[in-house]
């Protein structure tokens, strides 16, 4: 090795030793003839010192070092007079004996510090420099630790990691598939997997029993909503199990991760049915770090001549505790915020429970003090609280109220990133109606099994068929989801029929899986976690971008390597493809 | 869980317990009114018994079970009268109390046994059934264990696993890149990585110091030679190290794997220079399980009037010990084998050292007994040995002799799959001449550093510039290769120049890396192992196909899912591409 130690390990125990370090110049300062240089590597920071006792050439060389120069330095470990007890190496410094510049550095385009002055775009272009900053590097170290602990946990439970193929087959359902032309099979394409779903099910048919894989998946879709075209899943599947087994094992995995990586012991995860989550939070991924559950008010407020309530399918409210002091202006701003097209509420009704005990609503014309007292009772409101109410069509008003609840949770400081609130959401609907294509789609995917008692509803009331499907939600973010799968050919065919596949289409696309079901398929089910998202939650970040070493931007571009890019005519000829647009 | 135990764990210690198993019917036989059923899962095989003490309906149900039916069975653990001590569960059997068919099975298209009757194509189509067979499943279990042990070893040494992108940039060097059209960036393409080379170097520039990744890579090339379009690499890189450090750490990793996974303790790996490997074995990946080194004979045989030798650039031989008894016919067959176009030798000269002490060559006309005695001395031959000699142009004759040596090694039983002979090959040439393009190519890749003392030769004698490059060879197979990289912009530019890049091209394609070198790049180097190949060596297989769960065939097709395949017109329109061939 070029070095004897790293920049993070020398302490008072090494006093007097002659050591060699390698690293980057973090900063350098001259103080009355003495030059102090901080040298940095992945493990920490060590202070070098060149003073009057140092050879003059060496001192001059030290003074010439710029930020981010890569150096190799040999010296003697001395006790510092001016100790910095904040860092492990803060009690010592190195009296330089030899100094070698391994590589010079231009002045970096932004500060390589925990707080940098670089804008997002600049840092993306020089990602390799941004990765030098502690916060970003720490995210990737965290990610590594998490992956190691996941593998340890699953290996201990006899799970086998099996690599499934990346070059697979495009399906008509796969509108968001990336495709890959095959040179050896001209005119034909592979697709990149959106998930290894069918392969992991085949592994169950093969008897693998407990499979997992930490694996890249791909989706060619718009990248709003903090998504990436390539993302990483913790993909898992088990045979001969019930839903209960899966919930227990993967709750265990999540708890193991929190315990080993963050030192946090989580208690048993609560469970909630999808229908309840929608009713109480207007979301299938409620943020349960705070209560503020929806209060349904139809029985309380209808029939008093207020047409907005009287005509509404659903009237719901939340109790924003302690915000009765909100001014009219603040409430108006909130109303405007709710009216933005992304949310689309038509208006906000409120009722203040003033600290003096008076109730004051925005619809006093229709409701007297007694009636408002009933409201307050429904909300379990106390003096000082503010009741916020929306009315309209059920699905829409729940969505709007979900947004308002989250906003109020944020304003009230109830969404602390260091507080983790996991929740299992169970009994998802099997199908969901799609307005655009005017047909039902699989809410999870076509391989999810319906609850046996709901199968008769497939023909009569498909929207109300419940699935053996579950999501794991933490702090309002879905981090995993799965289901017990269909393992019977006839039921799988029926499912495809209800999804609008002809028998021929179903056979052409998924024949291999349905055939497999005829050769002894065991009952099975599984789950997949979004690993990027899980890492971002562990890192306390809102975006997944900084838990990924080389992420792409919102246009799916890597601005550092400038990709995607045009390819040579000759290469397209070899692949027997043409583009129908020209790229400058 | 549906079961209380697996089919591999019940022993005499469980006698009298009531247990539940799930699994596949391996076989079933009736013996005088008693039905024995072997039920199988991933963990083993357990015998069920239904006899006169069993309820009649249950006995009938048991008799109806076909091969590969999936069953759940509850019963009592009894001691067997007829014990099978070859399997862990062979001392017990289960008296069936309850039996449930979880799924029926059609008769499988081939036998699900260690030795099957299915042909390769049939087994590929029903890969999910082939994966049920012990030998194939064991390979994947082995692969899982190896990956776990690799991660443990590297994690312990502070390596961090970082995921690098799969959607990267195509380069003109990347004639074998798979490309992926981008929907969001019409007319532009990503490429799939042939290796994460540039990204791991950027991670070194970022200060990550010790990186690894077990990662899928892609190459769109002809699949002779047991290759796959997608393959897995153990990709590693380190900063602030010398070649010696890399050799030690990854020799350590290999030794750790052999020790923990196979229980084999390997001693220190020998090292050999590329030039010596070529001279002694005619190959940069010699199989060192056996000696049979080349003997150079120019000094011994030239000048005796035998024109084939006199005109040859190089005359080399091997001593095929103990084969003096080969008949003329056997030698003729060997000669014909050598003349096949794949090898292309023009003739084989031999000299028998008969057990009676006589020397008899195929060129007795030119060489007398005394001269043949000199030959024997050069070969260190003893009575009973056969000397086999080829002559011709150096590179060609070495290649031919390499083939002959390996063939003789096989014939003499010197290539035992359970004997492992690792070897480091060092000091590879930096460049190799390509007849087709009439220019030099990088032998490893353009980022490999030349030996500093050879840099001046770049202009005068490029073919003789040695690189800081090394391969790890086991049993004649290259399982890993790497180099100390260039970390200096000027040297990297010079390298691109010698590889025929214009300055503009180099900047366009690799500008991001060369720019990175200007912002403080540390000295670094690394290695990548072919994980599929390593697994196949551990599994004692000639092909990598059966250490991969879902491999592709020689045409790059997955015949199980029928991929690649044509995609819909609409999808191509969205991607702004067209194919220039039509697919039926």
UniProtKB/TrEMBL annotation, chains A, B:
It is found in: Cytoplasm. GO terms for cellular component: cytoplasm. Residues 140-551 form the Aminoacyl-transfer RNA synthetases class-II family profile domain. ATP binds at residues 219-221, 228, 478, 530-533. GO terms for molecular function: aspartate-tRNA ligase activity; ATP binding; nucleic acid binding. GO terms for biological process: aspartyl-tRNA aminoacylation. L-aspartate binds at residues 173, 219, 444, 485. InterPro entries: Aa-tRNA-synt_II, aa-tRNA-synth_II, aa-tRNA-synth_II/BPL/LPL, Asp-tRNA-ligase_1, Asp-tRNA-ligase_1_N, Asp/Asn-tRNA-synth_IIb, AspRS_core, GAD-like_sf. Keywords: Aminoacyl-tRNA synthetase, ATP-binding, Cytoplasm, Ligase, Nucleotide-binding, Protein biosynthesis. It catalyses: tRNA(Asp) + L-aspartate + ATP = L-aspartyl-tRNA(Asp) + AMP + diphosphate. Its EC number is 6.1.1.12. It is an enzyme of class 6 (ligase). The keyword Kinase does not apply. Residues 197-200 are annotated as: Aspartate. CDD domains: AspRS_core, EcAspRS_like_N. Catalyzes the attachment of L-aspartate to tRNA(Asp) in a two-step reaction: L-aspartate is first activated by ATP to form Asp-AMP and then transferred to the acceptor end of tRNA(Asp). Belongs to the class-II aminoacyl-tRNA synthetase family. Type 1 subfamily. Homodimer. This is Aspartate--tRNA ligase. It comes from Mucilaginibacter segetis.
